[in-house]
Design brief:
Blueprint lengths: L1 E5 L4 H11 L5 E6 L8 H4 L16 H7 L2 E4 L6 H10 L3 E4 L9 H8 L11 E2 L2 H9 L3 E3 L3 H16 L7 E7 L14 H4 L4 E2 L7 H9 L8 E7 L6 E8 L6 H11 L6 E6 L5 H4 L5 E9 L4 E8 L3 H16 L15
Parallel strand pairs: 1-2, 1-3, 3-4, 4-6, 5-6, 7-9, 11-12
Antiparallel strand pairs: 7-10, 8-9, 10-13, 12-13
Helix pairs in contact: 1-12, 3-4, 6-12, 7-9
The structure holds NADP nicotinamide-adenine-dinucleotide phosphate.
């Protein structure tokens, strides 16, 4: 399959190139960048030296489409909504990594992204394979989920489905590494601002919040999530601690079994033991989500679940390739079987 990457000079674009270089059924047909057109890939992504012998090109979407069977758009929100319609007109399949096509409610998108949607008629499938695999198989365009939503939706969905928590009071306390902000330099991502700090931000208004609630409300329309993201001084990784208030008397071991059953057979979900804490470092560079803790605080009728992902892999490019594999009928883990590192 010929695969094009639009926005290949960014962090998720670079991660797509790294993963696709290991994919036995794909050939990278083009990697676009406006800023680095004509430059070798390893000028921007030094780890790909002698792995990918190609150059960035500044191509119109039509030209990417004629060279590709499937295209990834790894661009800031607002840009894919202009490009994806052109790609679809040319008959290619698309996986978009931005927020542009994730929402069922266009007015919610427009409110949180402060943009008028130019193509609300394009209906994408939300690319969370653990919940939407059958729909993804038939999709022409997949909206790859946000990084925080991946960690939170997968982290709490089994408890909502099992109807053992108060769905109106879910608390998701997330910490993300600085690569979540992309490659574009910003004062808030300056070393001196990130290092030795833990910074809560957009504590009640992050644009991933409505994405999380929209999907979890498919299980129960009363779902309400208090979501507080934090920036922490790591490069990659998201850790989410989820606090839920129990309406049934259950033990931690039983909660663990609920997760095991829900994710049975899932290639990229690892359910840890009761009281075993997932570590961000264990999923670094991998497409896994590790879910664990499953602690019950009986006195306060509270259950605590912890999930970890690599924001650039299961939170972005790895999940995007997982979606492509499903769309094209490939084995779902093709190109994605890399093992993490420790320590
Ligand atoms: N970083 C994460 O952890 C993460 C996780 C999940 C989802 N996402 C989403 O994935 C998308 C890409 O994120 P990122 O972190 O990779 O961002 P990034 O590092 O800033 O890269 C974005 C790329 O898009 C290109 N670009 C920017 N504006 C453009 C325009 N108007 N037209 C064409 N190309 C343009 C830039 O390349 P040139 O300037 O070289 O052309 C840049 O390399 C975003 O929508 C983001 O929300 C990111």
């Amino acid at each position: 399959m010929r695969v094009g990457v639009i926005g290949a000079s960014g962090y998720t674009g670079g991660e797509l190139l790294r993963i696709l270089a290991m994919h036995e059924a794909c050939e990278i047909s083009c990697a676009t960048s406006r800023k680095y057109a004509g430059e070798r890939i390893h000028k921007v992504h030094p780890h790909l030296r002698e792995i990918l012998d190609m150059r960035f090109e500044n191509l119109a979407p039509e030209d990417v489409a004629t060279r590709s069977d499937v295209v990834f758009t790894a661009l800031p929100h607002g840009v894919p909504m202009k490009i994806v319609p052109v790609l679809l007109e040319h008959g290619v399949k698309v996986v978009d990594l931005s927020g542009d096509f994730r929402f069922k409610s266009i007015s919610t998108y427009e409110k949180y992204y402060q943009l008028k949607h130019e193509h609300p008629e394009i209906k994408a499938i939300y690319g969370l394979p653990e919940l939407y695999r059958e729909k993804i198989k038939k999709a022409e365009v997949v909206a790859n989920p946000g990084c925080y939503p991946t960690s939170i939706i997968l982290g709490v969905a089994p408890l909502i489905k099992e109807r053992i928590i108060d769905v109106g009071k879910i608390i998701a306390d997330s910490k993300s590494g600085a690569s979540g902000g992309g490659a574009q330099p910003k004062p808030v991502l300056h070393f001196c601002m990130v290092e030795e700090n833990i910074l809560p931000y957009k504590v009640s208004s992050h644009r991933h919040l409505p994405e999380i609630e929209e999907r979890l409300r498919e299980f129960d329309e009363r779902v309400s999530v208090s979501f507080v993201p934090h920036l922490v001084p790591v490069i990659r990784g998201i850790e989410t601690t989820i606090h839920c208030f129990l309406i049934e008397d259950v033990e931690g071991e039983e909660i663990k079994k609920i997760y095991e059953k829900f994710y049975e057979g899932e290639p990229f979900v690892r359910v840890l033991n009761h009281r075993e804490m997932p570590r961000m470092s264990s999923v670094r560079g991998t497409n896994y989500i590790d879910i664990g803790c499953f602690e019950v605080d009986k006195e306060r009728e509270r259950a605590i679940v912890v999930s970890v992902i690599d924001n650039l892999v299961k939170g972005a490019s790895g999940q995007a390739v997982q979606n492509m594999n499903i769309m094209l009928g490939f084995k779902e883990d093709m190109g994605l079987r890399s093992i993490g590192v420790h320590p």
